[in-house]
Amino acid sequence: MEFKSLDPDLWRSVLDQAPDLVFLSDFGTGHILYLNPAGIALVGLRDHADARARTTAEFLTDAGLAQTPAVEAALTRHGHWQGVSELRHFGTGEPIPVYVSAFAVRHGEAGPAVIAAIMRDRRRRRTQDRRFRTALESTAHRAREQHALAELGRLAVVADLDTLLPAATGAAAALIGAGCASIARSTGTDALEVLAYSGQPPQAAVLRRRSGVAAGVRGGHR
Predict the structure, then answer these.
(1) Taking residues 97-104, what's their average pLDDT?
(2) Residue at which a domain ends, from 74, 106, 125
(3) Which helix (H) or strand (E) holds 166?
């Protein structure tokens, strides 16, 4: 099969299948010449006819419009511009942060004639960033758990009790993600003697005994 690089139907099909917003516009008037289906859906338009009846300025929020002079200057001088802008949804008015790559695809005697722009919705990027941070925090927590258990196992073999007990409270705090942990024993009275503690120091070395509990963990922020 021969590949005809100038076949307009081929390139139209490519643009129609693109997952990001892609448009062509007249540089002088701002009128939309083409907007792909992903772009129509992103900004809440009805169809291609609805898109072609509008100008690029109608797609932008006030924040996006404020960038227009700088974008036009860059396109005139360099033929391209990249940066962050903000679209608006035609149905809800919701601002849509986007990353923009714009470039001149046809020039006239006075400068750029037709502009192409590819815009990627940054709202998905923020969601992906949050998922990445959550996964990273989970991995770091598992690493702390493994380190705490390994250190506790090593100390159980070679260390004395005074060294082992603080290590045990540290391991307990790491394993459950608590801010502090303690090991205590009954004194035979209505009190508990704290033998080891990790985290913010307690108010006193002897705590009031509650419900016969001889070891406790105080919750905190992970």
Answers:
(1) 94
(2) 125
(3) helix 161-176
